[in-house]
Amino acid sequence: MKVRYLVALVSALCASASWAREPFEVKDIRVEGIQRTEAGTVFSYLPVKVGDVLDDEKAAAAIKALYATGFFKDVRLESENGVLIVVIEERPAIAQITIVGAKEFEKDKLKEGLKQAGLAESRIFDRSTLEKAEQELKQQYMARGKYAVKITTTTTPLERNRVGITFHVDEGRTAKIRKINIVGNKAFKEKDLLSAFSLRTPGLLTWLTKEDQYSKQKLGGDLESLRSYYLNRGYLEFSIESTQVSITPDMQDIYITVNIVEGPKYDVSEIKLAGELLVPEEELRKLIQLSPGDTFSREKLTESIKLITDRLGDDGYAFANVNASPQLDKEKQQVAFTFFIDPGRRVYVRRINITGNSRTRDEVIRREMRQFEGGWYSTSKINRSKTRVDRLNYFTAVNVETPAVPGTTDQIDVNVEVKEKPTGAVMFGAGYSNMEGLILSGSVAQDNIFGTGKFVNLMVNTGSVNKTYSLSYTDPYFTKDGVTAGLDLYKRVLNTRTLSSVMNFNTDTLGAGLRFGIPINENDSIMGGLGAEQTTIDLGPDSPQRNIDFVNKFGRTTINIPATLSWRRDGRDSAIWTTSGTTQRVFAEVGLPGGDLTYYKLSYDLRWYFPITEIFTLMLNGELGYGDGYSGKELPFFKNFFAGGNTSVRGYNISSLGPRDATNRTLGGNKRAVGNIEVLFPMPGMRNDRTVRLSAFLDGGTVWGPGGVRPDQEGLRYSAGIAVTWISPMGPLKISVAQPLNSQPGDNIQRFQFQFGQQF
Asked: Can you list the residues of the chain whose pLDDT is less than 50?
């Protein structure tokens, strides 16, 4: 740009020198040489108007102004009988940009980058801008490890003073990290230190994760991870002296060397508290994770500061400041800390602002808030509010910020930003078995109808085994206190004749029921229900004798009055991306006297999440079930427990485990036990993407009962495998591949299963 102004100035001076004419009054102005530019555009930039007296100074100013637009390559002023003639030569315009040879990036994204560098179609062509854009293109490739990239550009003149620009890209091979050296380490092995790095040398999955490609940003993060590794193990004076990154002349191999100084290892000698202690000192000391005699850990120190700050925040001190000042004794290699506490002013919440909920009503979110407007600020209440909004499962993300109110010292706002996800779904399920082939099912649901937070579920399951037609309605806030009310209407048809692994019978059940739920506290709730159902039984010619005896005793059609009671506790940190916490559920179903069936079924489910590392989460799941009859009656065979399939023991066909009859058909049982061990982790290379999660699992379980096998004999079955869950733009997709570990002759194996949902 400076060069352009210099050329304009020189041209203006030359024009001034050549304009050796007497000043004259401009009677008219004519523009010559334009092809694309409108004459009006030239007039708008020209500082000379009709009626002005043009002299050398104004002529120079006019030429300089027109050059400054960047539209013109040459400008001359001429006069003829009082007419000012502006003769210009336009710069060419860019007609098209073509990129040839690009594979690493999408061409549209490359063009967007060129546009940000100032080069785009329809813009004025400028050689310096082209060079800048070329360098920007190279930088994008080098950021992907393409250090050997070569980019050549050609410009082709076109009609009407336009040019076409072609970028010829030779990407070359991607440079790989061949070696990472750490120099100066004595306390720890190099391989242990490198385990904290995200950058690494080529391995089995690095073609996918790109972790073997150098990035300055990633190296900076790895160096901070290395620093944390030492500081969390007592090396308070650890430092990184230098870092060298070198690349071979062929631009293919990268070598990284990190020089460190470990320093001595420090233990904690004393912990003191100072400042304004509004909370009893004894209570604050319980929040400090470090104790005298412990090895120093920056992680524990940071956590201690956070806990103290949050505790003060619970009393309304949102801007509390806690600093830990170290006092080093280098001779004894000990460090003492004094926690200086400045609570600041107590603040209250002025307003709660909710954004991002284009479909969900404000009241649905506000009723989950435990922090109230006009109340004193509370860290725990705000965190609890965020968790409750998250558990609604209407949003893919929930973010809460607490900015100070401008112009005040004792007020804050709570800004809740949500990102809605589709809550209506048309679900399609499928599985493949070597015995049955493809199995299909489906349902329609809306968990947040009209944004009110109410649930409506219309299930139409047309599987070959289970056919279900049901309508469920739930109001989670039937009362303002959070009492839940629901209604269920259903028709269930079970046809086991197409299942070679299950005993031969059909049932057709028509029923209705009412449900009510009462919240006990933030995590616990109790749900009760009462219903009525009619079941018609159709036995096949090879049905087991106990099924025949049941029909002879109770008839083909039975009336049942089921009552249900359940208790649920949800202590998960998130329903979107669970990393810690537990869920528990106790469920009881009883067939009440007055109906043909008197029985009871009890079940208990426990799911526990434990964070192993920042990215790995351990999930343990256990399920127990027991049922029987009372008043001299047995548990109806169609109320039996079953196991096997993608919701219990993967690797075995649905409902195929447990007691069997003489024809090897599954009978089900009155006892059920299932356990799952699963390690959850992000997709490699997609650590921050909460839509995809992988897992490795170990499943085990069975059912048993009268006349069936016991788990201490041969009933328990185990499997292991991998699974992926993806919340895709088309809906949730779950895929699992399992290998049975102790299958027996006659077992019905189903290694591959998937479930897909179309959301709207």
From this structure: 1-18, 20, 431-437, 709-713, 758-760
Q: How far apart are CA 587 and CA 468, in angstroms?
A: 22
| Count of CA atoms in the C-beta half-sphere (13 A) of 59 | 28
715: which DSSP letter?
A: I
Question: ∠ CA(638), CA(643), CA(648), 5° rounding?
Answer: 135
| pLDDT for position 40 | 84
Residues 681 and 687: their CA atoms lie apart, in Å, by: 8
- Angle at which helices 107-116 and 127-143 pack, to 10 degrees? 130
Token code pair at residue 618: 């351990």
Closest Cα to residue 715, out of 629, 635, 642, 647?
642
As a three-state string, the secondary structure of 51-81 is CCEECHHHHHHHHHHHHHCCCEEEEEEEEEC
- Round the CA-based radius of gyration of the chain to a whole number and report it: 37
Q: Would you state the structure tokens that stand for residue 276, as one six-digit string?
A: 């304004």
For residues 213 and 146, the answer to whether their CB atoms sit within 8 Å is no
Residues forming beta bridges with residue 581, ordered by sequence position: 609
Please tell me the number of Cα atoms within 13 Å of 552 on its side-chain side.
7
DSSP 3-state assignment of 12? Answer: helix
pLDDT, residue 540, reads: 73
Quote the tokens at residue 668.
């089900």
- Amino acid at residue number 334: Q
CB contact at 8 A, 683 and 668? no
d(CA 45, CA 14): 20
* Residue at token pair 């965190």: 383
Q: In 3D, which of 42, 83, 81, 91 has the Cα closest to residue 63?
A: 42
pTM above 0.85, yes or no: no
Domains along the chain with CATH numbers:
2-90 (3.10.20.310), 93-170 (3.10.20.310), 176-261 (3.10.20.310), 267-342 (3.10.20.310), 348-420 (3.10.20.310), 460-759 (2.40.160.50)
In angstroms, the CA 218 to CA 187 distance is 25
